[in-house]
Every structure is written in structure tokens, then in C-alpha cells.
Amino acid sequence: MGNPKAFMTVTRKEAGYRLISERIYDHAEVEQTLNREDRMQQASRCMDCGIPFCHWACPLGNKMPEWQDYIYKGNWRRGVEVLHETNNFPEFTGRVCPAPCEKSCVLALHDVPVTIRENEASVTEVAFMEGMIKARPPKYRSGKKVAVIGSGPAGLAAAQQLNRKGHYVTVFEKDNKPGGLLRYGIPNFKLSKHVIDRRLEILMEEGIEFVTNTEIGRDIPGKQIMQEYDAVCLATGAGKPRDINPVGRELKGIHFAMEFLSQQIRLLQGEEAFTAEKISAKDKHVLVIGGGDTGSDCVGTSIRQGAKSVTQIEILPQPPLGKNPATPWPHPYPQILKTSSSHEEGCIRRWLLNTLSFVGEDGSVKEATAEEVAWEKDENGRFRMISRGQKETLKADLILLALGFVHPVHEGLLDELGVDYDARGNVAVDKQHGSNIPGVFAAGDTIMGASLVVKAIASGRKVAEDIHRVISTR
């Protein structure tokens, strides 16, 4: 701990966002960066607590006090090395992680936690710029072959860890380029795709093979992959979107959020749209149903496309601002109001609204009818939704369903392999990440349901250890 008093003398300073008047006209990353001197000062605020709750809250177990102390002392190389000991891709989590570490920071008791996420992104950027992050191909090969199906954060982490153990790793991706939802689900203004591409170049240099535009279970039978590889890791994600079925659901202009987001990302990459119909928010009244991060991404994308208005509605109550007694410190995921950069750009946010029906004209949606609801506990202490009897009509030329995901897509590969599912429809695995099919493992959202990038990376690292242990004894 280089400066034991910095948490009292140095105030929290965030990098902030680019001006709204500028950023809504492009898809470049909205978050700015601090200079190195400021970043070193922010790192010095870490108190190196006797019990580092930040470390406890991080699914990856990142050693926050250690690598931030190295930043403060100007040893950026050692800082990024310590960070990479537990996190394969700090440049991803430094941009899109909700930072449970900061929520559990002791300084969060006074609402001024250490800027851990920004520090993480900064040290990684310095390391890339100065050539500190290089390929580390294994010194020997085991002769074992592992197929990783899916190239999201879980699949990439599993692939890199297995490759470092000396196994031959092939990653299969159904889309044009690797990255999974990192590439095709998170907007460019939150995660520039060159950040993914430069990491992929390193993974390829390390010897990982990527096979794109290939859907296992359709282009290649899953059973063939099982015969050709010593182990198979399912990292296909949770791609089945949650739907609702009000009257008028069949009208044109109602789309799942990922259809809308991925189409915009594909266009920016010069790829053909995945859907035949072009989905555009230009000059439209956009209604986003769902109050989470995906809904927020729809808001920002709609604004950049030139929407006439954007409204986001949520069926649950508005969370409290600041602190919530129901999820007190050091809870890593406090249920509090989150205002994203997209919300700041111009969005009407509403809560406690349940969608009843969609109204159209000439087959296209024009309005949505919603009712006000409340949540009350029943005799068993469980919350139930009740109608307050008040209805209203919302203008909506484009409706985006951002209601989350229910489980992985069963049709195709998973059903072909015959894997078991748990009660929620995710692939069921044992403590060693093994499915009911010998040699078939699973990780990430495939077994957890839709979750966080940081959790997916952690799951990918763990499944790699389990796969290595099994195939090394054969």
C-alpha cells in the first residue's frame, strides 16, 4: 500500500462520457479516459483493506489491491500481469462489467468507491499500446483435441486456458466473426469491435483455431464433432429470448431486442443483416419493453438511428436511488436505480406498466396499450402483480422486446446430443461441468442462463480446468 492516506485526500474522479451533442451522431465508444497521472491517483485510493470485499465480490477473484498498487507506483507491466492471472480479458470487463467489486468496496459505504473498472480498462489499454500484452503459445502440445462450440466470453476463456495447457483447441462459431454477444449483442458505443479483434489476433497467434460461419448441429453433426475431439465444450450462450403474447403480437414492427441490436452491429461491420427485414428507428416512436441493460442498449441505438421519441417501460417498480436497505453493502448487486449513458441521451422511462395489447394499421404496429400495476405480497410472502385499473395508450411505430433470455436454444445441437436440461432449461452439469453425455462439458450462459460477461469468463476458466483434468488422465 503505497499511500495509506490517499482515500482521504484524493477524491473519486470518473472519466465520464463524451458530450451528448457529439456522441449521438456516431457509434464510437462513449466513455472517455483519464490521463495516466490521474489514473495513478485514482488507483492510490485503494486502502488494501484487511478483508478485501472487492476480491470477494468479483466472480473472477481479481486481486484489486495488488494490481492497483502497481498502477499507483507506475509499474503498469506488473499491474496487467497480476490482472491477467485471474482475468483473460480485462479489456472487456473494464468496459462492460457492472463492477460488483466497486459495489463492495469499503469506500462505497460513503458512495465514493475506488474506480476499479476504469482502472482495469486503463491499465489494459496502456499494456496494449506499449506492447506488454503478447501471444504466449504453449511450449509443448499434449496431442489432445478440444472443440469449443461458441466464441463468446466463456468459450474464448475456456479456449485460451485449454490452449495454454498444450491441448489443440478449435473454436466453432456460427456467425461471420468470433465474439458471440460481445460482438453481436453489445453496441459499438459500449464496446468497440477492434477491442475484440486485437485480442483474437493474440489467441490465433497462440495456436487456437477459429472456424466461423459453421453451426454445429446444422452444418456439421454434433456426433461427428464428438468422434473427432477428445472433449467438447458447449458455450453457445442463452439465446432463447423471453417473449410476451398480448393481442396484436403478430403485427409488423415488433422485434426482439437482439434482432435490432445485432443488425445495427452487422451493418457497421459491413455484413449482411441477419434478418430479411430492415429494422430502423429513424423518424419513429420507439417503445422498448424491458428495463435492463439490453433495453438501455436499444435506447442508445434508437437515438443514433434518428428516432422521433424513445420510451422504455418496465413492469417492476422503480428501484431506489443511491442505497437500498434490501440489498445493503457489501452486496455486489444492489437493486438501485441505474442510469446509463443511453438514458442520458434522451429517453422517457416508466415503471409499473404491463403491456396489454398492440394496435396496428395496415398490418403494422402504431400503438401499445398498457395498464398500471402494483406488487403486493400474498399470504405466503410472495409478490403478486395486481392491476390498478388505469390504462393508457403509448405511441409505438417500433416495439423492441428486451425481456431477457430464458435458456439456451435447444433445437439443433443440444437436442441432437441429448444433453439433460435443468428446471430452467439450461444444460445440466455436475460439479466438474460435465453433462450427462461423456466427454461433453458446458459453461457460461449455457448452464447459468443469461448472466454477466465476468461470470462467463470465470465459468470458462473453470470448465477448462475440469476438461484438462479429465482428458489428461485418458
Largest β-sheet summary: 5 strands, parallel
**How many domain units?**
3
Average pLDDT for all residues: 96
Q: Name the CATH architecture of the largest domain.
A: 3-Layer(bba) Sandwich
- How helical, in percent, are the residues? 25-40%
- Helical stretch tally: 19
The helix-and-strand class reads alpha/beta
Shape: globular
Distance between the termini: 46 Å
- The name of the CATH superfamily of the largest domain reads FAD/NAD(P)-binding domain
What's the CATH class of the largest domain, please?
A: Alpha Beta
CATH topology of the largest domain: FAD/NAD(P)-binding domain
Oligomer: single chain
State Rg: 23 Å
- Enumerate the spans where pLDDT stays under 50 for 5 or more consecutive residues: none
Number of β-strand runs? 15
In what range is the share of β-strand residues? Answer: 15-25%
Strand line-up across the major sheet:
3-2-1-4-15
